[in-house]
Amino acid sequence: MSEQKKTRTTVDIYGQQYSIIGSESTSFIRLVASIVDDKMREIGEKNPSLDSSKLAVLTAVNVVHDYLKVKDELEALQTKILNEKG
């Protein structure tokens, strides 16, 4: 069983540097970090009184919400395709 090579990538999210270790490419990790940073800045602009911890939690809630909506849409499309084939 072969292990995937892990890489360490340093990213900047909302003014803080984080070292992320993963098997994904550096460009993918940077893309993820950029999306998180953009979302935090978007929410932070609308809620300037939030401290960074609350902002991070609110960002996580928003991202998971978006993920679940997309997941539901994907499942609905897969079901529709299967029903059309059957």
From TrEMBL:
Signal peptide: none annotated. GO terms for biological process: cell division. Pfam families: ZapA. Gene3D superfamilies: 6.10.250.790. SUPFAM superfamilies: Cell division protein ZapA-like (SSF102829). Keywords: Cell cycle, Cell division, Cytoplasm, Septation. Its main location: cytoplasm. The keyword Amino-acid biosynthesis does not apply. It is found in: Cytoplasm. InterPro entries: Bac_CellDiv_Activator, Cell_div_ZapA-like, Cell_div_ZapA-like_sf. Homodimer. Interacts with FtsZ. Activator of cell division through the inhibition of FtsZ GTPase activity, therefore promoting FtsZ assembly into bundles of protofilaments necessary for the formation of the division Z ring. It is recruited early at mid-cell but it is not essential for cell division. This is Cell division protein ZapA. It comes from Bacillus suaedaesalsae.
